[in-house]
Design goal:
This protein has about 120 residues and is an all-alpha fold. The chain is built from five helices and no strands.
């Protein structure tokens, strides 16, 4: 089976599944980052974050151990976004909204590190 998995990575064959799932995750993270952070966009932020979580689950499944450190970093950053969104719901304020912005920015940073790690694979 290892031969089959390696065969899918080279030549003119289609890229590994992780490339597609990371692309989807990158798009949802970018969409989250493009949203204005504010009381009026809280529902949209939460909905977009659910998409990020779903896409991240796919990346984790597709990446396996090869990119485990990078995926773990993205998962930790996503967890911080989720916690900050819960904080805004529990106690809306400028401080909690700023925490969401900072967490989303960190998620983008960890996403960039994952994309860099995948450069030779995808």
């Amino acid at each position: 089976m290892a031969t089959l998995a390696l065969a899918g990575c080279g030549g003119d064959d289609a890229p590994p599944e992780v490339c597609s799932s990371v692309s989807s995750l990158q798009q949802s993270v970018a969409q989250l980052g493009d949203l204005e952070i504010g009381q009026g966009t809280l529902t949209e932020l939460q909905d977009t974050f659910k998409t990020v979580q779903s896409d991240l689950h796919e990346v984790a499944a597709d990446a396996g151990d090869e990119f485990g450190d990078e995926v773990d970093a993205v998962e930790q950053a996503a967890s911080a976004v989720g916690e900050s969104l819960q904080g805004v719901v529990a106690a809306p304020s400028g401080t909690t909204l700023a925490a969401v912005g900072a967490a989303v920015q960190e998620l983008g940073t960890s996403m960039s590190a994952l994309e860099d790690a995948l450069t030779t694979t995808c």
